[in-house]
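Hi F.,

I've been meaning to write this up properly since the lab meeting, where we talked about keeping a consistent format for the predictions we share between groups. The idea is simple: the sequence comes first, exactly as it goes in, then the structure tokens exactly as they come out, then a line or two of notes. No screenshots and no reformatting. I'm using this chain as the first example so we have something concrete to point to.
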Amino acid sequence: MASGQLFTLRPAEKRDRAYLDSYAYAEGMDYLPSLENVTVAANDADEPVGFIRIAQGANGLAHVNPVVVHESWRGHAVGRALVDDAQRTFGELRLVARGASKPFYDALGFVCCAWDEVDVSVTEDCDGCPLRDECNPQPMRRAGRLG
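Output, unedited:
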């Protein structure tokens, strides 16, 4: 880790699973189905402080599903670093912003898009969800590939 750097990004490893699942669970999400395409932000003790999972959609595009940062690390640009890294790797990103996460994605330059622009594997949880009105899900996209 470079001097002054709070965290580094690396591929998720098996030993990270307990952290990642607990972070997802704390946000009301299911456990991660696998560690494939999962990147973690790790502190100087190499413990995950946040993660992003990219799901490849049938439409060939990368979908953020999800990005989670431990509450004690919010405000330290961990989420931005994870999203930017994913976009450098995968190009355009799409997602469904749920609940209070929309302002975060707005600040990162995501724009609203049509439901059919986001892969059904990401949107299917919204169909018929009893919390839909409370959650107010919004499909979003951020175009291009970062250099």
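Notes:
The mean pLDDT is 89.
The chain has five helices and seven strands.

If this format works for you, I'll send the rest the same way.

G.
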